[in-house]
Design brief:
Elements lengths: L2 H17 L18 E3 L1 H14 L2 H4 L4 E3 L16 E7 L4 E7 L3 E7 L3 E5 L2 E4 L5 E4 L5 E5 L5 E7 L1 H6 L5 E3 L13 H4 L6 E3 L13 E2 L1 H12 L10 E5 L12 E7 L8 E3 L3 E7 L1 E6 L2 E6 L3 E4 L5 E5 L5 E7 L1 H6 L5 E3 L11 E2 L2 H4 L2
The protein binds 2,5-dihydroxybenzoic acid.
The site of 2,5-dihydroxybenzoic acid has 9 residues, from strand 3 and strand 10.
Length: 361
Protein backbone atom coordinates (compact mmCIF):
# COMPACT_ATOMS: atom_id res chain seq x y z
CA UNK A 1 0.00 0.00 0.00
CA UNK A 2 1.51 3.31 -0.97
CA UNK A 3 1.31 6.39 1.27
CA UNK A 4 -1.60 7.82 -0.66
CA UNK A 5 -3.70 4.68 -0.30
CA UNK A 6 -2.84 4.47 3.38
CA UNK A 7 -3.95 8.06 3.91
CA UNK A 8 -7.24 7.38 2.14
CA UNK A 9 -7.85 4.27 4.20
CA UNK A 10 -7.00 6.04 7.43
CA UNK A 11 -9.45 8.79 6.50
CA UNK A 12 -12.11 6.10 6.08
CA UNK A 13 -11.28 4.76 9.55
CA UNK A 14 -11.74 8.26 11.01
CA UNK A 15 -15.03 8.73 9.20
CA UNK A 16 -16.34 5.42 10.51
CA UNK A 17 -15.19 6.26 14.02
CA UNK A 18 -17.22 9.47 13.94
CA UNK A 19 -20.24 7.69 12.50
CA UNK A 20 -20.09 5.43 15.54
CA UNK A 21 -19.50 8.26 18.02
CA UNK A 22 -15.89 7.26 18.52
CA UNK A 23 -12.79 9.41 18.20
CA UNK A 24 -9.01 8.87 18.34
CA UNK A 25 -7.63 10.59 21.42
CA UNK A 26 -4.77 11.92 19.24
CA UNK A 27 -7.35 13.86 17.24
CA UNK A 28 -9.21 15.26 20.20
CA UNK A 29 -10.60 18.73 19.70
CA UNK A 30 -13.44 18.56 22.22
CA UNK A 31 -12.19 20.99 24.77
CA UNK A 32 -13.99 22.23 27.83
CA UNK A 33 -15.12 25.79 27.05
CA UNK A 34 -12.86 28.29 28.77
CA UNK A 35 -14.83 30.28 31.34
CA UNK A 36 -14.20 33.98 30.75
CA UNK A 37 -13.65 36.64 33.33
CA UNK A 38 -16.72 38.89 33.08
CA UNK A 39 -18.48 41.73 34.88
CA UNK A 40 -22.18 42.61 35.13
CA UNK A 41 -23.08 46.16 36.12
CA UNK A 42 -25.56 46.73 38.91
CA UNK A 43 -27.44 49.52 37.11
CA UNK A 44 -28.16 47.17 34.17
CA UNK A 45 -29.03 44.10 36.28
CA UNK A 46 -31.30 45.95 38.70
CA UNK A 47 -33.08 47.90 35.94
CA UNK A 48 -33.85 44.74 33.97
CA UNK A 49 -35.02 42.74 37.01
CA UNK A 50 -37.29 45.62 38.03
CA UNK A 51 -38.64 46.04 34.49
CA UNK A 52 -39.39 42.31 34.29
CA UNK A 53 -41.06 42.63 37.70
CA UNK A 54 -43.38 45.38 36.50
CA UNK A 55 -44.73 43.02 33.79
CA UNK A 56 -44.58 39.70 35.58
CA UNK A 57 -46.38 39.10 38.87
CA UNK A 58 -45.15 36.12 40.90
CA UNK A 59 -48.11 33.95 39.77
CA UNK A 60 -46.93 34.21 36.16
CA UNK A 61 -43.32 33.49 36.98
CA UNK A 62 -43.86 30.17 38.61
CA UNK A 63 -41.75 30.43 41.68
CA UNK A 64 -38.91 32.93 41.60
CA UNK A 65 -38.21 36.30 39.98
CA UNK A 66 -34.53 35.65 39.39
CA UNK A 67 -32.38 36.83 36.49
CA UNK A 68 -29.24 34.75 36.21
CA UNK A 69 -25.79 35.80 35.09
CA UNK A 70 -24.43 33.52 32.40
CA UNK A 71 -20.83 33.34 31.39
CA UNK A 72 -20.50 34.08 27.64
CA UNK A 73 -18.36 30.93 27.33
CA UNK A 74 -21.18 28.84 28.82
CA UNK A 75 -24.10 29.92 26.66
CA UNK A 76 -25.91 26.63 27.04
CA UNK A 77 -25.43 26.36 30.76
CA UNK A 78 -27.01 28.61 33.38
CA UNK A 79 -23.65 29.21 35.00
CA UNK A 80 -21.42 32.14 35.86
CA UNK A 81 -18.63 29.55 36.11
CA UNK A 82 -18.59 25.82 35.37
CA UNK A 83 -19.76 25.14 38.95
CA UNK A 84 -21.42 28.34 40.23
CA UNK A 85 -24.78 29.86 39.32
CA UNK A 86 -25.53 33.45 40.35
CA UNK A 87 -28.73 35.45 39.96
CA UNK A 88 -30.37 38.66 41.06
CA UNK A 89 -33.72 37.86 42.69
CA UNK A 90 -36.36 40.50 43.48
CA UNK A 91 -39.54 40.16 45.50
CA UNK A 92 -42.22 42.86 45.72
CA UNK A 93 -44.23 43.85 48.80
CA UNK A 94 -46.86 41.23 49.64
CA UNK A 95 -45.36 38.57 47.37
CA UNK A 96 -44.46 35.03 48.39
CA UNK A 97 -41.96 32.85 46.54
CA UNK A 98 -43.47 29.47 47.30
CA UNK A 99 -41.78 26.63 49.15
CA UNK A 100 -39.59 24.05 47.48
CA UNK A 101 -36.42 22.07 48.09
CA UNK A 102 -33.71 20.67 45.85
CA UNK A 103 -30.43 18.81 45.88
CA UNK A 104 -28.47 21.90 44.79
CA UNK A 105 -27.44 24.08 47.74
CA UNK A 106 -28.14 27.81 47.79
CA UNK A 107 -27.07 31.02 49.44
CA UNK A 108 -28.58 34.53 49.44
CA UNK A 109 -26.74 37.77 50.05
CA UNK A 110 -29.19 40.63 50.69
CA UNK A 111 -28.48 43.63 48.45
CA UNK A 112 -31.32 46.09 48.85
CA UNK A 113 -34.61 46.64 50.72
CA UNK A 114 -36.04 45.79 54.12
CA UNK A 115 -38.99 43.61 55.07
CA UNK A 116 -38.14 40.22 53.59
CA UNK A 117 -38.61 37.05 55.63
CA UNK A 118 -36.96 33.80 54.65
CA UNK A 119 -38.43 30.56 55.88
CA UNK A 120 -35.84 27.77 56.04
CA UNK A 121 -37.15 24.42 57.30
CA UNK A 122 -40.09 26.16 59.04
CA UNK A 123 -38.00 28.77 60.82
CA UNK A 124 -38.75 32.33 59.73
CA UNK A 125 -35.79 34.69 59.62
CA UNK A 126 -36.06 38.43 58.97
CA UNK A 127 -33.21 39.50 56.67
CA UNK A 128 -31.41 42.82 56.30
CA UNK A 129 -28.98 44.33 53.80
CA UNK A 130 -25.61 42.58 53.95
CA UNK A 131 -26.90 39.41 55.66
CA UNK A 132 -26.05 35.98 54.28
CA UNK A 133 -28.67 33.20 54.47
CA UNK A 134 -27.90 29.59 53.56
CA UNK A 135 -30.17 26.83 52.35
CA UNK A 136 -28.00 23.71 52.38
CA UNK A 137 -29.21 21.00 50.00
CA UNK A 138 -32.64 19.49 50.53
CA UNK A 139 -33.85 22.04 53.12
CA UNK A 140 -37.31 23.51 52.43
CA UNK A 141 -37.22 27.23 51.71
CA UNK A 142 -39.68 30.00 50.92
CA UNK A 143 -39.31 33.79 50.70
CA UNK A 144 -41.85 36.48 51.62
CA UNK A 145 -41.86 40.24 51.44
CA UNK A 146 -43.82 41.53 54.43
CA UNK A 147 -42.50 45.08 54.02
CA UNK A 148 -43.38 48.07 51.86
CA UNK A 149 -40.44 48.10 49.42
CA UNK A 150 -38.88 45.76 46.90
CA UNK A 151 -36.22 43.47 48.30
CA UNK A 152 -33.36 42.31 46.08
CA UNK A 153 -30.67 39.75 46.78
CA UNK A 154 -27.93 37.74 45.12
CA UNK A 155 -28.68 34.02 44.74
CA UNK A 156 -25.77 31.62 44.60
CA UNK A 157 -26.27 27.95 43.74
CA UNK A 158 -24.09 25.02 42.74
CA UNK A 159 -26.49 24.03 39.95
CA UNK A 160 -23.94 23.86 37.08
CA UNK A 161 -22.00 21.31 39.13
CA UNK A 162 -25.07 19.34 40.28
CA UNK A 163 -26.57 19.36 36.78
CA UNK A 164 -23.23 18.17 35.44
CA UNK A 165 -23.54 15.16 37.73
CA UNK A 166 -27.19 14.63 36.65
CA UNK A 167 -28.03 14.80 40.33
CA UNK A 168 -30.55 17.64 40.38
CA UNK A 169 -33.70 16.53 42.18
CA UNK A 170 -36.40 19.06 42.98
CA UNK A 171 -39.68 19.01 44.90
CA UNK A 172 -42.44 21.55 45.42
CA UNK A 173 -43.93 21.66 48.90
CA UNK A 174 -47.25 19.76 48.91
CA UNK A 175 -48.96 22.54 50.92
CA UNK A 176 -47.50 25.32 48.70
CA UNK A 177 -46.40 27.35 51.74
CA UNK A 178 -44.23 26.30 54.65
CA UNK A 179 -45.62 26.20 58.14
CA UNK A 180 -43.89 28.30 60.78
CA UNK A 181 -43.25 25.74 63.50
CA UNK A 182 -40.12 27.13 65.11
CA UNK A 183 -39.62 30.36 67.05
CA UNK A 184 -38.78 33.23 64.70
CA UNK A 185 -35.12 33.94 64.20
CA UNK A 186 -33.98 31.27 66.67
CA UNK A 187 -30.97 30.20 64.59
CA UNK A 188 -29.72 33.65 63.80
CA UNK A 189 -30.21 34.73 67.42
CA UNK A 190 -27.10 32.60 67.98
CA UNK A 191 -23.91 34.53 67.56
CA UNK A 192 -22.47 34.25 64.07
CA UNK A 193 -19.39 36.24 65.13
CA UNK A 194 -17.52 33.16 66.26
CA UNK A 195 -18.09 31.70 62.78
CA UNK A 196 -16.20 34.38 60.89
CA UNK A 197 -12.82 32.84 60.17
CA UNK A 198 -9.90 34.96 59.03
CA UNK A 199 -8.92 33.31 55.74
CA UNK A 200 -5.28 33.58 56.70
CA UNK A 201 -5.89 31.04 59.52
CA UNK A 202 -6.42 27.29 59.23
CA UNK A 203 -10.10 26.33 58.81
CA UNK A 204 -12.02 25.15 61.85
CA UNK A 205 -13.32 21.81 60.66
CA UNK A 206 -15.49 21.49 63.79
CA UNK A 207 -17.56 24.61 62.99
CA UNK A 208 -21.33 24.01 63.34
CA UNK A 209 -23.89 24.53 60.57
CA UNK A 210 -25.24 28.05 60.78
CA UNK A 211 -27.94 29.39 58.46
CA UNK A 212 -27.76 33.16 58.92
CA UNK A 213 -24.73 35.43 59.20
CA UNK A 214 -25.54 39.04 60.07
CA UNK A 215 -23.79 41.99 58.47
CA UNK A 216 -23.92 43.58 61.94
CA UNK A 217 -21.55 40.79 63.07
CA UNK A 218 -19.40 40.81 59.93
CA UNK A 219 -18.58 44.52 59.72
CA UNK A 220 -17.12 44.84 63.26
CA UNK A 221 -15.29 41.52 62.80
CA UNK A 222 -13.53 42.97 59.74
CA UNK A 223 -12.59 46.11 61.68
CA UNK A 224 -11.14 44.00 64.49
CA UNK A 225 -9.25 41.85 61.99
CA UNK A 226 -7.83 44.93 60.24
CA UNK A 227 -6.13 45.90 63.51
CA UNK A 228 -4.20 42.59 63.53
CA UNK A 229 -1.61 41.17 61.16
CA UNK A 230 -3.82 38.20 60.23
CA UNK A 231 -4.64 39.67 56.84
CA UNK A 232 -3.98 38.09 53.47
CA UNK A 233 -1.51 39.51 50.92
CA UNK A 234 -3.87 38.29 48.15
CA UNK A 235 -7.25 39.14 49.66
CA UNK A 236 -6.79 41.95 52.17
CA UNK A 237 -8.85 41.84 55.35
CA UNK A 238 -10.77 38.67 54.54
CA UNK A 239 -13.07 36.37 56.45
CA UNK A 240 -14.81 33.16 55.48
CA UNK A 241 -18.33 32.44 56.72
CA UNK A 242 -17.42 29.18 58.46
CA UNK A 243 -19.41 25.96 58.51
CA UNK A 244 -19.03 22.22 59.02
CA UNK A 245 -17.93 21.27 55.50
CA UNK A 246 -14.18 21.12 55.92
CA UNK A 247 -14.65 24.58 57.45
CA UNK A 248 -16.86 25.91 54.62
CA UNK A 249 -20.46 27.15 54.79
CA UNK A 250 -21.87 24.64 52.28
CA UNK A 251 -20.81 21.23 50.97
CA UNK A 252 -20.07 22.68 47.55
CA UNK A 253 -19.65 26.43 48.10
CA UNK A 254 -17.60 28.69 50.32
CA UNK A 255 -18.55 32.30 51.11
CA UNK A 256 -16.19 35.16 51.85
CA UNK A 257 -16.29 38.83 52.75
CA UNK A 258 -13.20 40.92 52.02
CA UNK A 259 -12.48 44.45 53.13
CA UNK A 260 -9.97 46.33 51.01
CA UNK A 261 -8.65 49.33 52.90
CA UNK A 262 -8.32 52.70 51.13
CA UNK A 263 -5.67 52.41 48.39
CA UNK A 264 -5.05 48.73 49.25
CA UNK A 265 -3.58 46.79 46.31
CA UNK A 266 -3.33 43.02 46.83
CA UNK A 267 -0.68 40.75 45.35
CA UNK A 268 -1.62 38.61 42.34
CA UNK A 269 -2.20 34.87 42.61
CA UNK A 270 -4.24 32.16 40.91
CA UNK A 271 -5.97 29.01 42.10
CA UNK A 272 -8.06 26.17 40.73
CA UNK A 273 -11.28 27.26 42.45
CA UNK A 274 -13.48 29.78 40.64
CA UNK A 275 -15.38 32.64 42.30
CA UNK A 276 -18.27 35.01 41.72
CA UNK A 277 -17.89 38.40 43.39
CA UNK A 278 -20.51 40.93 44.38
CA UNK A 279 -19.49 44.45 45.44
CA UNK A 280 -21.29 45.13 48.72
CA UNK A 281 -19.83 48.63 49.10
CA UNK A 282 -17.12 50.80 47.61
CA UNK A 283 -15.35 51.06 44.29
CA UNK A 284 -12.12 49.85 42.80
CA UNK A 285 -10.82 47.44 40.21
CA UNK A 286 -9.62 43.87 39.84
CA UNK A 287 -7.05 42.82 37.28
CA UNK A 288 -7.85 39.36 35.89
CA UNK A 289 -5.36 37.79 33.46
CA UNK A 290 -4.12 41.26 32.54
CA UNK A 291 -7.58 42.73 31.96
CA UNK A 292 -8.77 45.56 34.19
CA UNK A 293 -12.33 45.25 35.56
CA UNK A 294 -13.58 48.45 37.22
CA UNK A 295 -16.31 47.85 39.78
CA UNK A 296 -18.61 49.72 42.06
CA UNK A 297 -21.42 48.92 44.49
CA UNK A 298 -23.76 46.17 43.30
CA UNK A 299 -21.62 44.94 40.38
CA UNK A 300 -20.85 41.22 40.03
CA UNK A 301 -17.79 39.69 38.41
CA UNK A 302 -16.28 36.29 37.78
CA UNK A 303 -12.77 35.11 38.49
CA UNK A 304 -12.35 31.88 36.51
CA UNK A 305 -10.25 28.94 37.63
CA UNK A 306 -6.51 29.45 37.29
CA UNK A 307 -6.82 33.12 36.25
CA UNK A 308 -4.30 35.55 37.75
CA UNK A 309 -6.05 38.19 39.81
CA UNK A 310 -5.37 41.11 42.15
CA UNK A 311 -7.72 43.64 43.75
CA UNK A 312 -7.35 47.40 44.14
CA UNK A 313 -9.43 49.80 46.22
CA UNK A 314 -9.49 53.09 44.28
CA UNK A 315 -11.48 55.06 46.88
CA UNK A 316 -10.62 56.66 50.20
CA UNK A 317 -13.21 54.57 52.05
CA UNK A 318 -13.13 50.78 52.63
CA UNK A 319 -14.47 48.51 49.89
CA UNK A 320 -16.38 45.34 50.83
CA UNK A 321 -16.45 42.40 48.42
CA UNK A 322 -18.73 39.42 49.01
CA UNK A 323 -17.85 36.27 47.07
CA UNK A 324 -18.83 32.66 46.64
CA UNK A 325 -16.43 29.98 45.47
CA UNK A 326 -16.22 26.27 44.68
CA UNK A 327 -13.24 25.62 46.94
CA UNK A 328 -15.09 22.83 48.87
CA UNK A 329 -15.46 20.87 45.63
CA UNK A 330 -11.79 21.31 44.78
CA UNK A 331 -10.76 20.20 48.28
CA UNK A 332 -13.11 17.21 48.29
CA UNK A 333 -11.37 15.82 45.20
CA UNK A 334 -7.88 17.03 46.06
CA UNK A 335 -7.86 19.42 43.11
CA UNK A 336 -6.94 22.61 44.94
CA UNK A 337 -3.77 24.28 43.68
CA UNK A 338 -2.58 27.83 44.21
CA UNK A 339 0.28 29.84 42.82
CA UNK A 340 1.62 33.32 43.60
CA UNK A 341 2.84 35.65 40.86
CA UNK A 342 6.50 36.18 41.59
CA UNK A 343 7.48 38.34 38.62
CA UNK A 344 7.00 42.13 38.38
CA UNK A 345 6.76 42.55 42.16
CA UNK A 346 3.64 40.37 42.32
CA UNK A 347 1.55 42.51 39.98
CA UNK A 348 0.26 41.90 36.46
CA UNK A 349 0.77 44.17 33.52
CA UNK A 350 -2.59 45.65 32.45
CA UNK A 351 -3.08 44.97 28.74
CA UNK A 352 -6.78 45.91 28.34
CA UNK A 353 -9.78 47.32 30.18
CA UNK A 354 -13.10 45.49 30.24
CA UNK A 355 -16.04 47.48 28.84
CA UNK A 356 -19.37 45.76 29.70
CA UNK A 357 -21.14 47.70 26.95
CA UNK A 358 -18.75 46.31 24.28
CA UNK A 359 -18.50 42.82 25.80
CA UNK A 360 -22.27 42.25 25.86
CA UNK A 361 -24.30 40.60 23.13
O1 LIG B 1 -34.82 31.12 45.61
O2 LIG B 1 -35.06 28.99 45.79
O3 LIG B 1 -32.12 31.86 41.54
O4 LIG B 1 -34.49 27.48 43.74
C1 LIG B 1 -32.65 29.57 41.43
C2 LIG B 1 -33.25 28.46 41.99
C3 LIG B 1 -33.36 30.89 43.29
C4 LIG B 1 -34.66 29.97 45.18
C5 LIG B 1 -32.71 30.77 42.08
C6 LIG B 1 -33.91 28.57 43.20
C7 LIG B 1 -33.96 29.78 43.86
Amino acid sequence: MDDKDAAVELEAVYTEMLQNNLEGLWRMTREVPEVKPYLWRWDVMSRLVNQAGSFLPMEELGERRAVFLFNPALKHLAGATQTLYAAIQMIQPGEVARAHRHTPSALRFIIEGEGAMMNVESEVVPVHVGDLVLTPNWLWHEHRNEGTEKVTWLDGLDTPFVFGLSAAVYEMHPDVYLPETKPRDITSAGNSQSLLRPVALEPDTAAPQHLVYRWTDVEPALDRLAATDTTSPYDGVAIEYAGPNNGHALRTMGCWMQMLRPAEHTAAHRHTHSSVYHVHRGSGHTVIDGQRFDWKQGDCFVIPSWAWHEHVNDADTPAYLFSMNDMPIMEAFDLQREEALNESGGHQEITSTFDPAKAAG
